[in-house]
Amino acid sequence: MTPPNHRERQIMQHLRGAGWVKAATLPDNPKTIANLISKGWVERAEDGAAYRLTALGLEAKKAPVKVG
Question: pTM score, two decimals?
Answer without folding.
Answer: 0.86
